[in-house]
Q: What sequence folds into this?
């Protein structure tokens, strides 16, 4: 497990919105099942004093922090205010900030992530499903019934594709240590490299699956990090058939000027000696071969 | 969204960057008047939303005497399949030197990156590929609102003094206009000074609203319709319609189709938590493409509920065969509904895709 465990005390920002309230309930059901602390406080400016599914709501992160000694926050704030919420959480000393929100302007994300990192906080996302360490904690919106405990770490830029892979792993009897959706936007907080370093330190993780897609070179940076610390890794890259200069779904999935297309990424990974699955269904066998 | 050259130049000149004298025309008849306002030889540049327009014949030289006929020729052209609606008539420049200047976002560094080269023009990409040292590169911390002096000195060492102020201006435009890319290639030295001979500006789609842009021109008609429903939609050229939830899963579905030697007609990501009505619109939209022979739906229910998806598919009632793979939340209810209505259900995305490819080729 990395980024959180059973003792992680969680804040939800945007607690009184539809998504926030719904997922406070789901995260706390999961926490009860595994004996974890779960979501202990919420924040919605102007709605302090209320409660959501029994969780007290505050006006500011500082107030919530003073009362509950929080170490993680999950953000469901709408795009226009989400970057500000990331900075508020970092300013209050929260270590792990998971930003679920999609469609935040990229210049806002650069500002917020730079500020959060200067405060020593780790930002997961934005535009991500969060993370789940089976049996330990759930920070975000991942569908927990698909998961099982084990020793394979999963890092992914794409939400539902992650669920697909986790489902296949669980069916094949391969459990997961921590599954992290790092988000599909052009700029994100924690990258493959940061997560690889976390997994390398984690005694529960024996090997890692990296799920990437078109755009940028973050997958190559991550693979290099895995090679240099000796962590076994299998990769899958989505978007081999994606047309150039078209946005495929989220902002990150675009090929800019021929850079970062899936086929050349796969070629470069294989040239580095990384095993690359051509279909999601090949991943369980390929990772089993490595362990 | 990509701005057109004349729009980008207008933005840049608002940041103190000099641009050539020009007039935008929308018919050949306006060419002569444009020339008389500019004086001297001109360049006619088609304002079309595609890259590589110069090589595709979208840029023509003219003198005042033949401007009308050259404009006529340009307006009749199709540039990479697009008709020419607008032409920028611009003074022809006496170029002494060309530079390349580009500001983009570096994903690994999570910051803006400024690229500058003492060479420019259409060849810059291959030149930079052959000798990467020609391009100077500087990362600007997101904490800075201006390009610091030390970065300007590094980038422009030995160049004309005005080049540094162009970089400063372009950087301010990049920040204030929520740009993903701001580029001047070539930035030219002429006897009149330093000018942006071409201009490229791409605005972050997530910021169009606060930039006061209400219509995203990069989208086709169906893509724009998809956007009103909150779908991500991309048109391709095959015969299999594809609906999924989540960009990654939908892209992986396309890749599997290609792996099985099929061709996808489109890509539709319904997004998270789609209810039956959204799914119905999605199926109808995909089915409305004439080339679509069969539709494959690959949905993994997390927030999305499979029974809602099933209802949406049934309500759409399209004439093409719909092959469905559903897994996750309320899977049993969804399967029961679809089986009751005679739809083909398959257990894995592999099977669903293989079956769709077979249907499309039969």
A:
């Amino acid at each position: 497990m990395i980024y959180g465990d059973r003792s992680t005390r969680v804040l939800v920002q945007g607690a009184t919105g539809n998504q926030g309230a719904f997922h406070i309930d789901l995260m706390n059901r999961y926490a009860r099942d595994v004996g974890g602390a779960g979501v202990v406080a919420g924040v919605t400016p102007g709605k302090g004093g209320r409660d959501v599914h029994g969780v007290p709501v505050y006006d500011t992160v500082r107030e919530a922090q003073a009362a509950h000694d929080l170490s993680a926050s999950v953000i469901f704030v709408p795009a226009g205010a989400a970057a500000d919420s990331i900075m508020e959480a970092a300013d209050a000393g929260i270590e792990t900030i998971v930003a679920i929100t999609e469609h935040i302007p990229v210049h806002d994300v650069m500002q917020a992530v730079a500020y959060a990192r200067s405060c020593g906080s780790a930002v997961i996302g934005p535009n991500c499903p969060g993370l789940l360490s089976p049996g330990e904690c759930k920070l975000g919106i991942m569908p927990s019934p698909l998961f099982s405990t084990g020793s394979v770490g999963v890092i992914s830029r794409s939400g539902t594709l992650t669920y697909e892979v986790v489902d296949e792993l669980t069916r094949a009897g391969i459990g997961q240590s921590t599954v992290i959706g790092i988000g599909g936007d052009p700029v994100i907080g924690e990258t493959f490299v940061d997560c690889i370093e976390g997994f390398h330190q984690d005694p529960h993780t024996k090997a890692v699956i990296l799920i990437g897609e078109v755009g940028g070179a973050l997958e190559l940076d991550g693979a290099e990090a895995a090679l240099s610390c000796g962590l076994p890794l299998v990769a899958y890259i989505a978007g081999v058939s994606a047309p150039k200069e078209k946005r495929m779904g989220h902002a990150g999935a675009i090929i800019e000027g021929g850079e970062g297309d899936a086929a050349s990424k796969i070629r470069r990974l294989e040239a580095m000696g990384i095993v690359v699955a051509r279909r999601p269904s090949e991943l369980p066998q390929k990772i089993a071969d490595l362990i | 969204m990509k701005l057109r050259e004349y729009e980008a130049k207008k933005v840049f000149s608002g940041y103190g960057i000099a641009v050539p004298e020009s007039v935008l025309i929308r018919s050949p008849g306006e060419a002569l008047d444009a020339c008389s306002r500019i004086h001297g030889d001109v360049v006619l540049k088609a304002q079309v939303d595609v890259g590589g327009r110069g090589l595709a014949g979208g840029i023509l030289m003219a003198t005042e005497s033949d401007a009308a006929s050259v404009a006529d020729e340009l307006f009749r052209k199709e540039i990479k399949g697009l008709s020419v609606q607008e032409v920028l008539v611009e003074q022809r420049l006496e170029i002494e030197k060309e530079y390349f200047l580009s500001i983009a976002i570096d994903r690994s560094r999570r910051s803006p990156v400024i690229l500058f080269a003492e060479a420019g023009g259409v060849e810059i990409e291959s030149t930079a590929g052959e000798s990467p040292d020609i391009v100077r590169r500087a990362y600007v911390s997101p904490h800075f609102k201006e390009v610091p002096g030390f970065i300007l000195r590094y980038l422009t060492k030995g160049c004309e003094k005005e080049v540094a102020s162009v970089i400063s201006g372009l950087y301010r435009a990049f920040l204030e206009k929520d740009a993903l890319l701001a580029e001047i290639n070539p930035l030219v030295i002429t006897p009149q000074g330093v000018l942006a001979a071409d201009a490229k500006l791409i605005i972050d789609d997530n910021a169009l609203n606060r930039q006061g842009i209400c219509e995203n021109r990069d989208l086709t008609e169906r893509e724009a319709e998809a956007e009103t429903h909150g779908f991500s939609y991309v048109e391709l050229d095959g015969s299999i319609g594809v609906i999924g939830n989540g960009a990654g899963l939908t892209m992986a579905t396309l890749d599997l189709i290609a792996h099985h030697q099929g061709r996808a007609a489109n890509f539709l990501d319904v997004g998270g938590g789609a209810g039956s009505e959204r799914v119905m619109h999605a199926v109808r939209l995909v089915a409305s493409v004439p080339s679509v022979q069969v539709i494959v739906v690959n949905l993994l229910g997390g927030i999305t509920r499979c029974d809602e998806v099933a209802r949406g598919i049934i309500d759409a009632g399209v004439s093409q065969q719909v092959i469905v793979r559903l897994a996750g939340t309320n899977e049993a209810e969804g399967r029961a509904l679809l089986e009751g209505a005679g739809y083909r259900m398959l257990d894995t995305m592999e099977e669903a895709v293989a079956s769709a490819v077979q249907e499309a080729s039969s």
